[in-house]
Each structure stands twice: as C-alpha cells, then as structure tokens.
Design brief:
The protein has 11 helices and 14 strands. It is of the alpha+beta class and about 325 residues long. The longest helix has 21 residues.
Amino acid sequence: MMNRTRRWLAALAIAVLTQHADAASLGDMYTVTVPVTGQGESAQQAAFRDAMRDILIRATGRRDAADLEGLAPLVAQAGRHVVSFRRAAGNLLAVSFDGSTIENAIDAAGLPFWGPDRPLTLVWLAVERGGRRSLAGSANGGDDRQHVERAAARRGIPLAWPGAGDDLGRGLQQVWNGDHEPLVNAARRYGADGVLIGRALPTAAGELIVDWTFSSAGLSAETRGDLDSGPDLAADRYASAYASRNAGQRVEQLVTVTGIDTLEAYAAALRALGRLPLVRGVAVDEVTPDAVSFALTVRGDPDALRQAIRREGLLVPVDETRMIFGLAP
C-alpha cells in the first residue's frame, strides 16, 4: 500500500510540473462586429460607439451598462480605446478594444464583471412558416439561426445546435408540444451548461414571435419576444449567477479537494476547477496521499467561488468555510 501511495505521489508530482489549467475563454471578449452605415470618419466613429455599447453589455451582463454614469464616457470616447478594426462583408465593422481600460472602468464604477469564461448553451429553435414547421440544426436553420447566433455573439454566449446525433423530427415535436425534459437532457451530450428552447410563430406582418424557455443548473426563465430575446434571456440569467459583485478583486484562493488518489481523479478535479467562471488560473499548492490543495487565481470573492463550485456539481462540500471539497462519487 505504501509503495502504491508513493508511486501515485511521484506520478502526480510529474503531472503537476507538466500541467496547468486555465478556464476556457472567449477568444473575442473585447472584439465585436457591428453594422456601419455610410463612409467617412463620422460613420466609423458611430460604429465604434455602437461596438463599445455591445462590449460593455457583454462584460457586465447588464443591458443598461452603456448608459450608466461610470461607463458612459467610454462610449462617448470609444474611438480612443480601439486597438484595431477592419471592414467585413455586408457593411460590417469588426472592432477590438483595449480590455484593460474597460475592466478598470468597470472596477472603478463598482459594477459586476463577467469575464471571458462563458457557459455553452444548446439551442432548440422550432419555426413555423407557411404552415410548415422546421427545426434549426447543424444542417439547416438559415437566416433564423444566423440571427440568433449574432445576438448571442453580442452578449458573449457560445451556442451549440442539435446535429446528426439527435432525432431532429422528434426534437421538433418535443419543442412544439412543450415536452422539454428530453431536450434539456440532451445538453450532456454537447457538454452544454444550459438549454434554450424556442417556439416561433409568424405574426400577420410576417415577424416572428418566439416563446423562449431557458434552463440551466439552478437557473430557469421564460419570455416572449423576437429572435434576439432568447440569447438576451440566457445572458441575463447567466450574468445574475456568474458576474462578480466584487469585480475589482483579483485574489489567490486556496481550495482543497479530498478523495484524490489517482491521476484520473486529479485530472477531473483540475478540469472542474479550471472551467469555473471567475477562475483565471489553477496551480497546485500541496499534495497529500488523498488530497490536493489548488491555488486558484480568482476574480471575485470567496462566496462567489463557493457558489460556482456548487453549480459545477463535480465537487461536493466537506468544509466550505475552509474551502475543502470532495470529488462527487
């Protein structure tokens, strides 16, 4: 038994030296694509302001962020904070901003900050047109799917769509009949954290009205609106859980995970901590025969971290006050 423990500790020591975990990040946290109308400096500056509005909403999770006293100057002077921009097809402008300036302004305003670590959301969208119903999936969806994806990109919400591994005919029927449990359960196959289900009907004017239902661990909501309102609903609910109330705090937090006696268990704990919202990095602080203490670089307070660990579900509380958790069986 002693030799086995020594072998495990030696193997873990090697793994610690060769592995480092960072939470999955949006590659374009401070880049957004917006329409640009016309040519010249004035049109470009207007597009910069629109882009900054989108970025502030994305970074705080608040739809009114651009109008708040502490952030409105960033919008008014958006051009000063542009790092790069380029024209894109369809009269679009892709704009990248200085992220440090934006984060510092959010911190100074005392506002919540929602970093680049974003949950993946599986979308089931059924649309009726001309008496025919279809489900937007990996091989179809056309303009409706693209519209939803653009709205989600503005809010920084990564999406997944049902594909060939799903019975799309049955999925369409389940969306329409309100049989949502199988659709929610499908999220596991996609590694999705939440599910957004929409049933869309045309109005007399040809516009779509969508009944949206959002579901994630501990979060659920419904709304009726246009195609944009689904991603907005998901983003609002995620932000209520994941945006840090103490945005300016960047601290190192020690978290101990018990029940780690194999490299597989170590890897599972490392992944679970590394993908948590608020966590910017994970390093190993101490190794014992059945536990590992991880030093987490966290943006936010300990309570927000505890809540994030609970929602993730792989780690169960042992002594939350001392930040000790165990691997779920």
